[in-house]
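Q: Hi! Curious about what Putrescine transport system permease protein PotI looks like structurally. Here's the sequence.
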Amino acid sequence: MNSLPVVRSPWRWVILVVGFFFLYAPMVLLVIYSFNSSKLVTVWAGWSTKWYTVLFQDTAMISAVSMSLGIAAMSATMATILGTLAAVVMVRFGKFRGSNGFAFMLTAPLVMPDVITGLSLLLLFVAMGHLIGWPAERGMLTIWMAHVTFCTAYVAVVISARLRELDRSLEEAAMDLGATPLKVFFVITVPMIAPALVSGWLLAFTLSLDDLVIASFVAGPGSTTLPMLVFASVRMGVNPEINALASLILLVVGLIGLVAWWFMSRAEKQRMREMRKAAGS
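A: Let's find out. The predicted structure is below.
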């Protein structure tokens, strides 16, 4: 039986171009205006790199960037560890008493409004401070704990989807040969879900770096993150220095994404070659 020919719509390229235009045109415009010499963001006055110089001389901005990057890296790392453990429990342990409640509580932050999450965590930290004296004050630690709370849910969803797609025959063969479950997990399972681990870490890093609402609730004096500083600056008027900062963030994120994609693509090709070699032998 002959298969039907695939009909390609002539509008597919138009739709693709329009979609990419709405996605990336604002970013391109932001990068262009970061080289604007005028203090007025909407008025073009010629090319200049002075706002990048002003940015690197702004100690408050550099401090906020350093704090946000540190919190985002630590939050993403802890969220990846906890999210991986939670995903393994949901996918590999099957049904157990309280499994539905565990899955519900784990994924609840995905649909919980940030205002509710931030207010709840604020009340929790205040109550803990009164009861046990910890945390004594709100700052970088409380922001990190809050970010780990909601980032773990996103990481768990990404990794659990990858775990459900895995062929368990390699793991079962390793255990039949005498490997312990812990060794099987680190030697076989972790390399196979490595792309999901990297994706989950990058997603958690981005969510933590971008968070404004929750950090505003749980932050204290002297713990201003980058989104909080940018929001406070924008309320008083858009500063061209923000354009320069955003352009550098786009550059760094783009490079990180490109490097991560290259490593994941290389690892996936290596895994496919090993599978074909094993099937051929």
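A: A fun detail: The chain has twelve helices and no strands.
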